[in-house]
Amino acid sequence: MNEKRQYFSRTKNKKTNARLVHSETITRRLHDIARLSTDEVIRTFNSSRHGLTEELVHANREKYGDNIVTSASEESFFQRLVKAFINPFTIILIALAAISFVTDIQLAPVGEKDPMTVVIIVVLVIISGSLQLIQETRSGNAAAKLQDMIKITTAVERIETGTKEIDLDQVVVGDRIHLAAGDMIPADLRILEAKDLFISQSALTGESEPVEKFNKPIEEVRHVSLTDIANLAFMGTNVVSGAAVGVVVAAGNNTVFGDMAQDIVDVDVRTSFEEGVHSVSWVLIRFMLAMVPVVLLINGFTKGNWLEASLFAISVAVGLTPEMLPMIVTANLAKGALAMSRKKTIIKSLSSIQNLGSMDILCTDKTGTLTQDRVVLEYYLDVHGEASVRVLRHGFLNSYFQTGLKNLIDKAIIDRVAEQSSKESSLKGLKEFYQKIDEIPFDFERRRMSVVIEDQTGKTQMITKGAVEEIMSICSFVEYGGEVGPFTEEIETDINDTVGRLNDQGMRVIAVAQKTNPPPVGEFSVKDENDMVLIGYLAFLDPPKETTYEAIRTLHDYGVEVKVLTGDNERVTKAICRQVGLPVGNLLEGSQVELMDDDELSKIVEETTVFAKLSPQQKARVVTCLRDNGHSVGFLGDGINDAAAMRTSDVGVSVNNAVDIAKESADVILLEKDLRVLGEGIIEGRKTYGNMIKYIKMTASSNFGNVFSVLIASAFLPFLPMAAIHLVLLNLIYDISCISLPWDNVDEEFLRVPRKWDASSIASFMLWIGPTSSVFDITTFVLMYYVIAPSAVGGKLYHQLTDPALKAMFVSVFQAGWFVESMWSQTLVIHMIRTPKIPFIQSSASLPVAALTFTGILVLTLIPFTGFGAQIGLAALPPVYFAWLAVTVLLYMGLAQWFKNIYVRRYGELL
Question: Which of 114, 365, 650, 660 is an active site residue?
Answer without folding.
Answer: 365
